[in-house]
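Exercise 4. Each item below gives a protein and its sequence. For each, produce the structure-token representation.

Item: Helix-turn-helix (Amycolatopsis rubida).
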Amino acid sequence: MTEPGGAQRPMDKVADIASDIGEYIRQQRSSAKISLRQLSKLAGVSNPYLSQIERGVRKPSAEILQQIAKGLRISAEALYVQAGILDLPTGGPVGDAIRADAELTERQKQVLLDVYESFRRENAAANTAPKTTQETTEESA
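Answer:
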């Protein structure tokens, strides 16, 4: 339902998030070739409750999402982002790989992410900056 002016009501937004996270969990479970029953055992949640989450009837807590992520062997962060608990991290697959590396300390991960993001910002700025006459001449040569 929408309010006058086309805005969504808060409860409708919650329902959309629950539906989205449920669909995402179902997709992850499917691609991992795990049955609903197997995931419910791995995650330590009841079969009916997990089914309700997947159908968008229930919106799971962060703790339940963490248990489901563990059962699916995916990052809890990915589920938190999908559920709207966390903002989407920047850096894409490179950032995800850095965050997932168990051999790096948290400090090392942060330094790598900072350097990587600085390169991305620098390249983005270079791509949006007006080209000089010399750059334009070099490209056409």
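Check: The mean pLDDT is 80.
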